[in-house]
Amino acid sequence: MKKIEREDYIFQKKCYLILLYLFYLNGVSYKSIISRSFGFHFDPKCNFKVVVFSNHEHIHKYVIHIFNSLWKANLEEIDVMGNVNFFKVKNVDYLDPYIPQSSLNVYFDEYNFRAIGFMEGKKIDYLLKDKNNPKFKKDEAKGNIFKDDILYLLNLDKNVDNEESFIHFLLKLFTYRIDVDLVLGSGINADYGAKDWKSLTHSLNEKFYEGSIDRIKEIQHYVGDELFVSSKILKANGFDTYKELNKELYLFKPDIDFFSNKQTTLYIITDYIARHDKTTVITYNYDTNLEYILKKRGILYNTTYDDNSFLNKEAKVSIFHVHGLLPFDRYNEYKFTDSLIFNESEYYYLYNNPYSWNIAKQLHDFIFNTSIFIGISLTDPNMKRLLELASNHLKFNFIFMKREEGFDAKTYKDVTNYFFTYDLITIWINDYKEINDWLKIID
């Protein structure tokens, strides 16, 4: 996607978010909203449509137009009942807006927006940052801007029983009618003492270089943080990568008994699976800990780690190890080690082969399913590349991120806004246990 196209796309997604926010403010239930890219009449200027089933069992059809400026926009011509017209403007504060008689016009400068017109049979005039409100000057002095309010400030409320939270509204909306994926990274194992990816590679680095920290730093000066520059180098040095990986994945002393402790992220995920038939899990982890707990709880599952898998339709969950699978003490079995995407050349091979099942699965689900990312830091450029390719104007995915003690509040805002460029709505948590409360609100 070209730079200008990407900027236009992000602007359109912000407009979509504003529309959903206005529905939320006007008491529209998440269950009654359906977004469409086609439908009830032909309009070449239409970006998308939204159907709302009202509380009075009426069907309200909205036709959304998004304009990059007011220039050449015939405001009277598009002032039609059911039209929602978004306009990019330089500054909402100095705008003398056209007051529609039938439609809803939203003037948006990416700092503030004003919505004037009609929604759900009611006349509205809503200004996100009202200068007459004392809070406006306070926010302005702090440098808070529109995207901070929508993308960050509105998800500060962590009371999952509060139906008025916009972030909960969004999560319910995009999981009610759309299939849900749980996308899992190494962070799901952190609360019981297992290593995340960065700690794992650091530990293997130390073993490979026999504990010489200075040598590690010298090598990293030339080739970066990764040990696994070349599988041939590892073999030539007699380093058994898969045996050492097996030790790191399984032969460590856990902080708690994660197979029975119901407070761990891993157990919380199996609780969600138990409540939802036909769940899909995409995992970047090599271990079988999730499968072990599912088996222990009597939950039937499919596990896929290559393109020769047999999927039982009676299974409650299908787990796709898109970077391969290494069961305990099976590090000498080629069928497992060959599936692993672990060293640098394997990553290059995978992401240069867009027709591989691993890439096809991720792209399909990121585009068409609501993906909930858990235990993933999003530092991997390959994943961000896939997320950018998986752009969908009418859907958001979600990512859980844990606050760290002592971090600046603006850091969370910047990260929230950055993730939004990948269609991700960030849910900030203070403790991994909170994930359970969030997953419980999904129907």
Task: Compile the SSE list and pairings.
Layout: H1 3-25, E1 33-36, E2 48-53, E3 59-67, E4 83-88, E5 104-108, E6 113-119, E7 122-127, H2 134-142, H3 146-151, H4 166-176, E8 180-184, H5 197-208, H6 213-223, H7 231-236, H8 241-250, H9 265-275, E9 279-283, H10 289-296, E10 301-304, E11 317-321, H11 334-337, H12 344-351, H13 357-368, E12 370-374, H14 381-389, E13 397-402, H15 409-420, E14 424-429, H16 434-440
Parallel strand pairs: 3-4, 4-5, 8-9, 8-12, 9-11, 10-11, 12-13, 13-14
Antiparallel strand pairs: 1-2, 2-3, 5-6, 6-7
Helix pairs in contact: 9-16
Strand content: 15-25%
Described by the principal axes of the CA atoms, the overall outline is elongated
Distance from N terminus to C terminus (CA atoms, Å) equals: 35 Å
Helical amount: 25-40%
> What characterizes the major β-sheet?
7 strands, mixed
Name its key features.
16 helices, Rossmann fold, alpha/beta, 36% helix, seven-stranded mixed β-sheet, 443 residues
Walkthrough of the structure:
There is one protein chain. With 443 residues, this protein is an alpha/beta fold. The protein folds into 3 domains: 3-145, no CATH class; 180-194 and 254-440, Rossmann fold; 197-250, no CATH class. Helix content is 36%, strand content 18%. The protein has 16 helices and 14 strands. It has a 7-stranded mixed sheet, with helices on one face. The longest helix is centred in the N-terminal third of the chain and has 23 residues, at 3-25. The radius of gyration is 25 Å and the shape is elongated. The two termini are 35 Å apart. Mean pLDDT is 86; it is low at 143-147.
